[in-house]
Amino acid sequence: MQTVRSFCRVCTSVCGILVDVDGDQVLRVRGDQDHPFSQGYTCAKGRALPLLHHHPARLEKPRMRVDGQLQDTSWDVCLDDLATRLKAIIDERGPQSVAFYFSTMESAGFRMAEALHAAIGTPAKFSPLTIDGTAKPLVSDLVGGFMGLSGRTDLDNCDFLMLVGINPVVSHGHAISMPNPTGTVRDIAKRGQVWVVDPRHTETARLATGHLAPRPSTDHAVLAYLVREILRDGRKTDVPVQGLAELTAAVEPFTLEHTATLCDVAETELTTLLAAVRSARCVAIETGTGVTMTAERGNVTQWLAWVLMILTGAMNRPGGTWFHPGFAYQLEAFGEFLPVTPIEGAFGPGPRSRPEAQAFINEWPCAVLPDEIAAGNIRALINVGGSLVTSFPETGKLIPALQHLEVFATTEIVNNDTTELATHVLPTKDPLERPDITLHDILSSRVSVQHTPAVVAPVGERRSMWWVFADLGRRLGYDVGSLGDPDRSTDDDVLSVLLAGARCSFEDVVAKGWAEAPRDLPAQWVDDHIGRMGGWRLAPPLLVDQLAALKPMPAALVMVPRRQRKKLNGQLDFLGESAEIMINPDDGAAAGVAGGRPVTVRSANGELTGVARLDESIRRGVVSIPHGHHEANVNRLTSKDDIDTVTGMVRYSGTPVSLHPA
């Protein structure tokens, strides 16, 4: 037996792990005590990597649909057929008829797929961004003038943390990277205060010093009330700002009485939270999918969270929020050339079938894919590691659309509902079979880039994802070889190209296993950037207008999303997390639903059936449904037409539903 040092790629916390192997058998995964960030911590999902590697439904050979049936085949036959059919579609209908969906933690494969997408020249690009996360880059752009302002809480020095719509004890944070979340939250609560704003008394709320449970989709009102009162007190900082008068007018309606009524909370609870905010040195705020999945409400909630941090002096200051300067690139090196986005934002033309939608960060909303296929605009889809069936909205419209494609190629490691719809299934190396570096260097709070060798050899005929797209590009006649040559390059050769020009050499990262970017607070490059644009933009017109246009939620019962300890999106079904539908006992009694029994949840768009869990930790009027289940697919309740037209974000939280005994 040997032990190999690696890092987990199940989520963005990328914890350090030690993997025990015996030949081609992966025996155990445990935490790496010497890792500078996770320090020996692992979660159930990370420790399940051996089970994922030895999954009974793992894919080992390319598959191709012949006469309506998927059959095992060779790489040459599969890629030749795929390239031939793609080329015919491009020649006949143009490059815009080919779409890509990007969803993978594999760095080399992701970058090579991006290169192929650029070489084909299609505007049709999709990613999970418009399923769970558009509010954060939107607010970075509109308030901070730069989408690359990736804010992270200074967890080591924070003494007042507000967690809005996020349950890091289970999720490890929504792109905030929080290994050992239980210990982290406890430490902050010991030296200061942790407040949780969530309609459920979550696992994180149990560790907090305060909890507020507003009606779902009213988080923005809580923050608007706090901002209103802080403005009346006088802001705590002299950092340059603009739009103060417009902001004051925008939040003026959110009096104590109005906010308490809108959120259905006691006035005393709001004043207690306000007193805590007033007494704080500065207020650090983290939001998660409970916020970002509420479409336009997520935009205004994220905006007001940033505003509250600006007004209390948390931005770019110790104990507040620091902004990652990048590792593969260095933002401070741009100096006065760091771009400043117009206050109106930067958007582009969207799909022809949905004129109300637009492109955001050069991506189209995932919700428009079925309409683009039905209109004949998209005839081929290349899926880069995504579980479309368990992640895209309105499954009842998505599946027929995917079946209507001429080409649907997908990379994957385990057979699932999405691969069963494909025309070409491309088996790629799993996380333990490939050398790798962390994909998004700005997602980590401390460690910016890590490297791992391959832990075991790939099973069957699995190939590196970058090789698959490089070889496909070559067969299509495109030059994507600047990242790597499919005939001569190794995985590490491609990874070294990705770190060319980084803060340290690829060889240094390999030797040590990780490298860090500077974590200066305050960082001069951030202050300089904000100064050049005239101060933080407190009142972008787009967000002010969205706040003013919000109406009270009319439904008595609405759905909210939830993550689980032993499941991540469509992965890790084998760990036994059932699709429990969490319901307040009073709502269950009103609907005649019994705990532990099947319950059907219906919306205007569809229905799903799961097991009812009657739980007093969740407030009345809320039905909490976990992500990623095939048998109780939450996407069946959502609508491809119910999106924020600014960003294309689908409404996953706040959808009206009803309960019925199954």
TrEMBL record:
<dbReference type="InterPro" id="IPR006656">
    <property type="entry name" value="Mopterin_OxRdtase"/>
</dbReference>
<dbReference type="InterPro" id="IPR050612">
    <property type="entry name" value="Prok_Mopterin_Oxidored"/>
</dbReference>
<keyword id="KW-0004">4Fe-4S</keyword>
<dbReference type="Pfam" id="PF00384">
    <property type="entry name" value="Molybdopterin"/>
</dbReference>
<protein>
    <submittedName>
        <fullName>Molybdopterin-dependent oxidoreductase</fullName>
    </submittedName>
</protein>
<feature type="domain" description="4Fe-4S Mo/W bis-MGD-type">
    <location>
        <begin position="1"/>
        <end position="57"/>
    </location>
</feature>
<dbReference type="InterPro" id="IPR006657">
    <property type="entry name" value="MoPterin_dinucl-bd_dom"/>
</dbReference>
<keyword id="KW-0479">Metal-binding</keyword>
<dbReference type="InterPro" id="IPR009010">
    <property type="entry name" value="Asp_de-COase-like_dom_sf"/>
</dbReference>
<dbReference type="Pfam" id="PF01568">
    <property type="entry name" value="Molydop_binding"/>
</dbReference>
<dbReference type="Pfam" id="PF04879">
    <property type="entry name" value="Molybdop_Fe4S4"/>
</dbReference>
<comment type="similarity">
    <text>Belongs to the prokaryotic molybdopterin-containing oxidoreductase family.</text>
</comment>
<dbReference type="InterPro" id="IPR027467">
    <property type="entry name" value="MopterinOxRdtase_cofactor_BS"/>
</dbReference>
<keyword id="KW-0408">Iron</keyword>
<dbReference type="InterPro" id="IPR006963">
    <property type="entry name" value="Mopterin_OxRdtase_4Fe-4S_dom"/>
</dbReference>
<keyword id="KW-0411">Iron-sulfur</keyword>
